[in-house]
Amino acid sequence: MSISGEAWERLTSWLPTNQDPERPQMQVATVTPDGRPDVRTVLLTEFSPEGFWFHTDSRSRKAAQLQASSAVALVVLWPGFTRQLSVQGEAAVASREEIAAAYARRSDFLKQLAWQNTHDFAQLPQAERVARWQVFAEHGDASRQPPTWTGYLVRPHRLTFWEGGVDTASLRTEFTATASGWEQSYLAG
Ligand SMILES: Cc1cc2nc3c(=O)[nH]c(=O)nc-3n(C[C@H](O)[C@H](O)[C@H](O)COP(=O)(O)O)c2cc1C
Q1: What CATH number corresponds to the domain at position 64?
Q2: Which structural domain, as residue segments, surrounds residue 56?
Q3: Is the CB of 54 under 6 A from ligand 1?
């Protein structure tokens, strides 16, 4: 269900716009095939009433885990210490167009990272890693996207906005998707 009403208003007032070059960091929790939680930080690439996008390498652990189970939880701490957004939802591979557009918007550094952040590269001695990075920066072509570049859209079914304050108790405002729309409730922080 697309995010609407008060939940959407909160999102747009809490998070920086998709055009803001300073991207929020987001923890993405996934489930391993043997039922264990796994978590890592990514950048929130963009959001819309459809949900939240992040981008990664299709050979990564998170990609394998998402193929086996689409269940995810996200946490965005933005700005630090006073506001936390927690999301429960389902992740699906983003559209080819969205993935390409997100790649095109990346900085030159992040484009090169998408090419060179590989298992083989990680095995090299540090001096060799620095040297190969330099060679790619000078002679490589990172303008086209690597075949392993991918992205996910997380469609939420629960959004929890946590607010901390200095003059009262922290508070969570929660929106849960129901058959009749987004149901709002307040929870202790
Ligand atoms: C601040 C920060 C931002 C990161 N952003 C991304 C990102 O946008 N995409 C990504 O694939 N990895 C990103 N990483 C690296 C991931 O945390 C993680 O190490 C990597 O994606 C491999 O995760 P996996 O083995 O669980 O798939 C970021 C790490 C940090 C510390």
Answers
A1: 2.30.110.10
A2: 5-106+146-188
A3: yes
